[in-house]
UniProtKB/TrEMBL annotation:
GO terms for molecular function: ABC-type transporter activity. It comes from the Bacteria. Signal peptide: none annotated. One of its GO terms (cellular component) is plasma membrane. It comes from Candidatus Brocadia sapporoensis. The chain crosses the membrane at residues 6-28, 40-60, 80-110, 158-178, 222-246. Pfam families: ABC2_membrane_2 (PF12679). This is ABC transporter permease. Keywords: Membrane, Transmembrane, Transmembrane helix.
Length: 252
């Protein structure tokens, strides 16, 4: 968090959140929704950049400099290194996410309070609570990509890891599109593609819940609960793989 790019990205995100209140002056009747969506998108993009850039270089940088050997010479297990790096980076990114999310929520509540001439608590129930709920689920893709970048840093350098994270993020947000291209499994190639699809995080549905999309085939809370459990299990799976890879890697 002492690095300059943390403050630069956080400051840029805060500036864009403030600007979003002026970009929606002509969105009659949809100002609140547009400001919320623009603000949440800004927060997610900024935190994704911070998480991916920080986690992608966390282990590989230690291996290149040789400091990982000094660390492992102490009574420190390799799984403790992975867990410490992941949760440390996630905590740093969470602090930026919380600051920007709190600012967005407060500004939305103040705006609704002034426009509708209601109390702050009433405006929080109308605009603040839905924003907090969507922010919680918008943080899940950030945590998932932080885990993916941490796992990739065991064997990949910074540039390669960031490229892989970018591909995984794009494919994860286009999961249904790629899945519809191969609706049936009739041969080995399609089976292979379905297997790859199963290992790609479903960021599309998580992002839809984070943006408050309507769920028609089941209740909103039920779908949100399933996606929360899915995200936690996927992060646990990726971190477990990272620990296994790091245990087998010979550090010199």
């Amino acid at each position: 968090m002492r690095q300059g790019f943390f403050c630069f990205v956080a400051g840029g995100g805060i500036f864009l959140i403030l600007c979003s209140f002026f970009f929606t002056l002509f969105a009659f009747g949809e100002e609140l929704r547009m400001i919320r969506e623009m603000g949440i998108s800004t927060i997610v993009v900024c935190c994704l950049f911070l998480a991916s850039l920080s986690a992608a270089n966390t282990i590989s940088k230690e291996i290149e400099k040789g400091t990982i050997v000094m660390l492992l010479s102490k009574p420190v297990d390799k799984h403790s290194v992975i867990l410490g790096k992941f949760f440390g980076i996630l905590a740093a990114v969470s602090s930026v996410f919380i600051v920007m999310g709190t600012l967005l929520t407060v500004l939305l509540c103040v705006r609704e309070s002034l426009d509708l001439h209601i109390g702050f608590l009433t405006s929080f129930a109308m605009a603040g609570y839905p924003t907090v709920f969507q922010l919680v689920f918008s943080f899940l893709p950030v945590a998932i990509m932080c885990a993916v970048a941490t796992a990739g840093s065991v064997y990949l350098n910074l540039i390669s890891n960031l490229c892989c994270c970018m591909v995984i993020y794009i494919v994860g947000n286009l999961a249904s599109f790629f899945h519809d291209l191969f609706p049936s499994v009739t041969n080995w190639s399609l089976w292979y593609l379905s297997l790859v699809y199963a290992f790609i995080p479903d960021l599309e549905d998580i992002g839809a819940i984070g943006m408050g999309a309507k769920v028609e085939f089941m209740s909103y809370s039920y779908m949100a609960s399933l996606l929360m459990i899915y995200a936690v299990l996927y992060i646990a799976f990726v971190i477990t793989l990272a620990i296994e890879f790091f245990e087998k890697k010979e550090c010199r």
